[in-house]
């Protein structure tokens, strides 16, 4: 029996599966090792696991997550999983590898993530081989939820949203006065989640020309700054996972076409394809 997790900074989707029975899905909060330690993961995940989940029967845990940038960060999560599943073989890998395996299986190609954050890589059918750095939400993450949310919040605070959108934004989010916003961005935990939380506004109001232009600019920046920097990028299809990529897949396809890149697969979540990948081993 396998337990597979696709973890972002905000939430984590899990699936308990084997080759014969039905798959069991559940969600927990996200476990980014830059934000939480082993003890906190044990406490949170231990409380969130379904009571009926047969821990002793789990033979392997495959965790893919945000913030898994090196062996030390992987060990933060792996140590927690070994405590919770002492009989299981535990592997912890970065979320980009999950995206590549879900989108491409064992085929070589280019894969991207556009959700709260942004990532991308070339994949040889087994491992990631080359990455153009997204540079996180302060320096980069073009096209991601943080990028869209930051633009929306900035234009709201500067009174640059069209009046009807300004009113709708204020009613939807009630961001408060500028000192409150600045405190939330610079002094409170998880500012990336806070900023990305405004991105759904662009989808909800996508019929408005402002939101269409905002999304088009974001996807063009993603291709110009990231995708076109890969060697021979036009020889690959463009494949993407994530809530933002899925919501704006038509804008992504238009940007890909402008840069001479054929579209491949766009998925909202990798979990189903990841389960298929591991059950095929």
Automatic annotation (TrEMBL):
The keyword Kinase applies. The keyword Transferase applies. GO terms for molecular function: kinase activity. InterPro entries: ATPase_NBD, Euk-type_GlcNAc_Kinase. Keywords: Kinase, Transferase. This is N-acetylglucosamine kinase.
